[in-house]
Amino acid sequence: MIDGVGHGFLAHQAALTARHYVESHSEQPLKDIFRGVDRACRSTRGVVMALAVFNWEAMTLTFASVGNIEVKVLGADTHDEKFKFIVRRGIVGKNAPAPVITENKWKRGHIMALHSDGLSTQWHWNDFSHHAHMPAQFLAEQIHQALKKSHDDSTLIIVRIWLQITS
């Protein structure tokens, strides 16, 4: 997820610059992608960014974030199953700190929500548990409708796996 700093054309331009870099370097390690986006976005307002890499064979999630992108995972609330996400504050393109890259086990039933600052951060999965069995699109629509701010643009991504992947 990439969110250009500010609003309007200049924010859009920053987000497109970052997106282009990420898409054309997606095979690189996350730390190198963040470093490259930082260089590519220096002539822009900069972006905040969170990247998640899912390895479906190993059932892992590798995650890195700089800025105010929020991440929540449903289904990982037991004592032996805590997700570790370390978010660094800053703006990619404005000499942001390097992201802290974490790896977590991903299991069938987990649902991840990533969202920009255009949605309220004051929510819990329990608020939407009655929709957790629904398709990701429906769940995203319900969360977005309930949490969107009237004065800001917003992005929300829901990731879930329905079927068990076997090799």
Give the low-pLDDT segments: none
SSE sequence, one letter per element: EHHEEEEEHE
What integer is the average pLDDT? Answer: 85
Radius of gyration: 16 Å
Shape: globular
Topology:
Layout: E1 2-4, H1 8-24, H2 30-40, E2 47-55, E3 60-66, E4 70-74, E5 102-105, E6 111-115, H3 136-147, E7 156-160
Antiparallel strand pairs: 1-2, 2-3, 3-5, 4-6, 6-7
Can you describe this structure in just a few lines?
By secondary structure, the protein is an alpha+beta fold. The protein has 3 helices and 7 strands, in the order E-H-H-E-E-E-E-E-H-E.
Write a structural description.
Helices cover 24% and strands 23% of the residues. It is globular and about 45 Å long. It has 3 helices and 7 strands. With 167 residues, the protein is an alpha+beta fold. The model has no long low-confidence stretch (mean pLDDT 85). Helix 1 runs antiparallel to helix 2. A 4-stranded antiparallel β-sheet has the order 1-2-3-5, covered by helices on one side.
Quick tags:
7 strands; alpha+beta; globular; single chain; four-stranded antiparallel sheet; 167 residues
